[in-house]
Amino acid sequence: MLRDSFGRVATDLRVSLTDKCNLRCAYCMPPEGLEWLPNAQLLTADEVVRLVTIGVERLGITEVRYTGGEPLLRRELVDIVGRTTALGPGPQVSLTTNGIGLAKLAGPLAEAGLDRVNVSLDTLDREVFKRLAHRDRFGDVIAGLAAAEEAGLRPVKVNTVLMRGVNDHEAVSLLRWCLERGYELRFIEQMPLDAQHGWTREGMVTADEILASLSASFELTPDDLEERGSAPAERFLVDGGPARVGVIGSVTRPFCGSCDRVRLTADGQIRNCLFATEESDLKTALRAGASDDELAERWISAVSRKRAGHGIDDPSFLQPSRPMSAIGG
Ligand code: SAM
Question: What angle do CA 126, 128, 134 make, to 5 degrees?
Fold first, then answer.
């Protein structure tokens, strides 16, 4: 098992399939993009599947989420998903995506056994989308969401990051829009993980602010205080339920004490936390011929060193050198 020194057990593996993205969301990367990882450094599909298999078959991973960058840009995605869902213990397999291209791929992904998707959508206004994401792709995202629902990748979850003065006036309309379509909306507090290092505490729209804004239009009742477990989202029934909304207060309401996540980057590094400043290199060992046992040992050791918390409030906090897009959100 992947147990750390505080007794937490990692069972939820986030795998980044590429650091490239076709959007440039302002809270994530600069409009000109970033210097992408060279292809030779990316794990091949076979390497990804080998490491995921070790995680699932030997180390107790029960959930695998493919992310990025933008995972739909990875040509072998359907194949990778199919080989993951075919693994013996049958992990839950999901995808976090910006939805561009999902209109075509939702069906094949569902056929490959994908359980569900989280689609990022920060606004319902095409002009705001262009300003925030620096690309005119609003229509593709909406089409991708509809295709996911149609393909049965349910519950379709929508991830929203609110930015002050940009889209923070849209919390209520986004929730209403999602409720009408049966999508489950989750607001995520903006974290200091942008490549530009532009995050400020004052600029962040907090969970308290989001809940205050929603509460002016909806009756919100805490849904799962008893059974939240390791889920990052605090969930609320909307107007008595059954529809729900989630708020992920990563910064102001950290949930590190119950974290069960571990990450594998597109270039084969294990990260035991989004905010980790150390990584453990599985790719070099794998390419040097390490056995499954040796790779598993390295992975166990990487998780054992996980810190108690992300430490954003600590005066010594240092933003990790990799941005969110290169870690895998
Ligand atoms: N490209 C995919 C997408 O858009 O969902 C997957 C990768 S993206 C890094 C995963 C999630 O991280 C998205 O929901 C995105 O909104 C969120 N995200 C990116 N940068 C963030 C930040 N600085 N703070 C909070 N969430 C962030």
Answer: 90
Question: Of 111, 133, 186, 190, nearest to 156 (Cα)?
Answer: 186
**Å from CA of 72 to ligand 1 middle:** 14
Q: Is the CB of 194 under 6 A from ligand 1?
A: yes
DSSP E strand boundaries for the chain: 12-16, 63-67, 92-97, 116-120, 157-161, 184-188, 220-222, 234-238, 244-248, 261-264, 269-271, 280-281
Summarize pLDDT for 25-77 with one digit per residue, the tens.
999 999 999 999 999 999 999 999 999 999 999 999 999 999 999 999 999 99
- Counting from 1 in the atom list of ligand 1, the atom nearest the Cα of 190 is 24
Instruction: Give bridge partners of residue 222 from the DSSP assignment.
Output: 236
188 within ligand 1 shell (Cβ under 6 A): yes
- In DSSP terms, 211 is beta-bridged to none
pLDDT single digits (tens) 183-209: 999 999 999 999 999 999 999 999 999
324 in contact with ligand 1, CB cutoff 6 A: yes
Residue 187 C-alpha to ligand 1 middle, in angstroms? 11
C-alpha to C-alpha distance for 59 and 82, rounded to whole angstroms? 20
Q: Which parts of the chain register pLDDT below 50?
A: none
Predicted local confidence at residue 231, as pLDDT: 82
What are the structure tokens assigned to 298, written together? 């390295």
Query: Closest Cα partner for 229 from 5, 2, 11, 4?
Result: 11
pLDDT computed for residue 80 by the predictor: 98
C-alpha 329 to ligand 1 mean position (Å): 5
Nearest CA to ligand 1 atom 13: 120
Amino acid identity for residue 289 in this structure: G
Please, are residues 84 and 31 in contact by the beta-carbon 8 Å criterion?
no
Pair 1, 78: CB distance under 8 Å: no
**Residue 24 dihedral angles phi and psi, to the nearest 5°:** -135, 55
Minimum-distance ligand 1 atom for the alpha carbon of 98: 4
Tell me which residue of 79, 71, 11, 67 sits closest to 258, measured CA to CA. 11
Question: CA-CA distance, 62 to 53, in Å (whole number)?
Answer: 11
pTM of the complete model: 0.97
67 CB within 6 A, ligand 1? yes
